User: Fold these one by one.
Assistant:
Number 1:
Amino acid sequence: MSYKLHYSMLLPVEGMIDENGVDLTHEKAAAALRSMADHLEANPEVLKQILGKSPVADEREDRWVLRSTTKKNVICKAGGGWVEVDSRNIDLEDTRTSEQVASMSPGADEHSVWVRPENIGYLPVLATLRGEDGAYLGQVDLCDWMAWSWNSCEIDTSIAADWDFTQTLDWIADDEENPFYDDPNILTALRKEVPFTMKIEESEIPRAIEYLDELYPGFIDQIGARPSDDDPSL
């Protein structure tokens, strides 16, 4: 997940005439913060001394980037064009909130999908969203959800249902921890048509199996979902 982290620090404020800080103004506080920023830029090695080694609180961010479905670390710039970039160096201007994405037209096509910035370093596990008439409504990366939902039986039951994960959408509105909760690919589909299906299509099943083999070794064989010509022992 992408997070907004909160750090605590001691901020020296100069020029105070009262030890209790009763004359503290926003101007003095702002000046002290600017001075601290200048100090950090000139002395980056003191960062952890000032902010500490760990945050005191965190919030999951609603931040998404449009990525290539076939190339790792390739995203679409806000102004257009595709670039290769490390997830640690993504410009915030190239990210969007889920609401912004759901309001965009046109949005992602069949060669792109919206993901959280930290998820661009590996290939997605794609499920296709289709309306009742089979019309293409988008696609979604299942990687985060598969890792999050391991303690439930939803993965194996969905695989048994011919890789149909539609049922997993039933409770997302009630669970903010669910990675699908604010997924803009799903929000976009919801605004286009209801109901719709979410299914891993045949061409994407090998990638799904590869990911699940990495995530939960032995699981695919345990539930008997590996195609006969896809034996890892061969």
Number 2:
Amino acid sequence: PGDAGASAAAIGIFVVMTVAVTALLISVHEASHALIGLLMRAELFGVTIGRGRRVLGFEIGSVLVEIRAMPSGGVTILQPTGTRWRDMAVFSAGIAAEASALTAAALWQPGSAIGSSLRWSIILVASIHILLNVWPRTLTAESAAVVHTDGAHLVKMMTDLEGWRRDIDAIELTTDVARLVQAIHGGDTGAAITLAEERAAASPADAEPAATLAALLLASHRWRDAFDVLSPFADASDVEPAIQNNVAWAAVMTFDPTLLPQAERWSEQAFSSAPTNAAFANTRGATLTLLGRPDDGLPLLELASSSKKLTRPDGAFVNAFRALAEHATSDRREAAQDHLALAEALDPNCPALPEIRRRMLGVTVAA
């Protein structure tokens, strides 16, 4: 019993230290980006450490610094300089700082059990952070803000400098945009929607603020609001296919039959522009299914479900509408139940499930 108690205490100390070290290394990582960014003359707008409820927020000049409750990731918002060596220094800074901490911990020979726990906490957390940051990935927050890892930025600068410069030219960071990105990253959806509404109201003819607002509304399951925001832009000659897909999806998720003719047109145009896009295929297949054309919708839903990039929530949507399409085909009723069960397993709270269950208990899919 004594040994078991000592082991439990040691584990508890290690866990507490790991949480503290995680918060500290995230802070060091983001502070390094900010410091080197300032030294390289990049324009700095904001630093957020963690996610969830904002614990502390203060401004240093025009830079908003946020500390949030959960020690999970961080973001430094700055305008790149456009000079490769300067920007590579900025995006390498966080990784370099944590690599230094990892090296120091690996060389440290503590003389106590607490020191040993601290050493291994630093080694563990720094190793994970470095791996996740070096790995070139693109992340999305609430489907509205795209965040590239440091590795993704560095790879693009090394392999496609002109593309990197085009990306910079397309970035128009302002204080308002930075505050919005920080709210999205922190998971503060309510504040993000308020900021996005203000941006959209200030530029009512601009599709980009409207698209950002609509993405947040979709993530919050405010389907009709998202439809109303995007529909004025959906028939423009230069409209992005993603806008047509999103407004069609918003119409689908209202399950309002009066919106389906517009969804049919916009989903067809979006899917035609990118016939291998799983999200576009899902929206098009769901639209056709709700229009009473499950035989046309089912192949598209099957295409969407074959994508290896589906998240669990996305997979739940796809399988839910696939179940509805199969249910309308008399020889596929058993498959329909299997796909409905799969949707429920992937996301029991999928917003499409209540209405799809109701329709599958009925006789047919209503046109």
Number 3:
Amino acid sequence: MFQSILQGSRNSGLARMNDFESQASWDLSGSDLLVLKFDGTRLSSEKRDQLNRFRAGNSPVILQLAAGGKRKATIIGYGGRDNSFYLTWV
């Protein structure tokens, strides 16, 4: 579903996880793993707090990248230092 968005040299734009929305970059690692990194320079303290509520193992999130369709994904890891999420498709 996201193949056209995930291909190309620059994978960045507006990303949404549930109700959280901000600029991000992403990379598809293999066919099942997506690494999504939100740009920390564009996050207000409120946005950072909202982002920190997402944790691995919680309920699936609804993910939307750029102008693509929505798809369920599960967070399997989080890198708080650089706002990176590691997700797999549901």
Number 4:
Amino acid sequence: MLSDRNIALVVLARFVSRVGGSAAFFVGVWGMAAYTFHQPASTLAWMMAGMSLSEIAGSMVAGVFIDRLGPRKVLIVAEMLTLPVAVTLMFVQSFAVFVPLAWLFGFVGAPTFTAGASFAPYLSSDNERLQKINATVEGAGSLAFIIGPALGALVVQAWGAPSVFGLMAAASAIAAIAAWFVVIEVPVRRRESGHHPFREFTNGLRVSYSVPALRYTILTGSLVWFGFGAFGALEPLFYRDVLNVGVQWIGWMNTMFGLGLVCGAVLLSRLPKRMISAPGLGVMAALAGLGAIAYVGSTNLWVVAFGSVVWGVVIGATEPLLRTLLHLNSPHEYVGRVVGTAQYHKNAGELLPLAVAPTLALAFGVQATLIAGGVLVAIIALATLPIAFSVDRRGLRAVRVLPTAPEDEVIARLGDKGV
């Protein structure tokens, strides 16, 4: 894969961006909120809720512009907007200022994920190669997840928590330069409905929700990230109050999680072809819930480390699987908006538990609340398997259309085929 110059540059951009992003989020945003500003679970919850909402908005905007301009231009602009926000976060002294900047960081950072997740169909139209590209790009992101939190922990120990955002700024600059040299062809689309961004956005929603294979993939992805929602408010407190360890352990343990992510991304290319399906995604979602339980089910650091690797393996295989199914079932001119829909469904899935996680943590404890979230995800995912098999029988592939077809004609063709 990496012998292809364009793929190599996309992989480099994804890797560098996520090194900075994972360090800035886990050690910077989480670490400073819990350890520098000493905020409780309820405050962490509304801070994370605001970040999720801002990321949803960023993904919505990104999806429309990816389909207009291609993922390359969107990635470059998003990285360059992330850079000054990261630099500003280095010098914040007040939590009241830190929170809106963290929300802005989420808004400008979300398009980097959406654009990175949309490159594969622009790099190849071959289905098997599509799966390998997604696994390679996501593997690079997973490898970055190993290095980013560990590097963030080292930076914190050497120069303090705010310095992590300097790492993010440097990473954004390098990722933008790498994306600049990517060469892709963006098909010119005719639009009978005009160029209004909101119309394009709603058309993207119509396609995402009207194709059963896309709908199941997006909603199941939301379920997986629902399991992450409680962690947004409670994971820093799990380390601080349950495990009684310092902020650097958030970085070290998420590095172990990242090791699992890499192994999972490699595992995807070795899974049987029948797993590249809606039922396969349902099974992986159930395993994601069980993996979360393995991660937080003990107070022994060795067991937590092992559980983080196990959970990482499952998520590492699930992410590129989900992305491959989205690419396989999306008309080409809708890839950005479908991926954007999946991205803000991910953020919405993370939002829901934030409303109740702090209250449940006060009543039952941080660890018990996190375990219950994993159990709930596993049960719901298993319950969706009959739907997954029904989707599989109807055919996973959406109707392909010519790149020059008007948007309303695309939607009409999808509807005519009854998919």
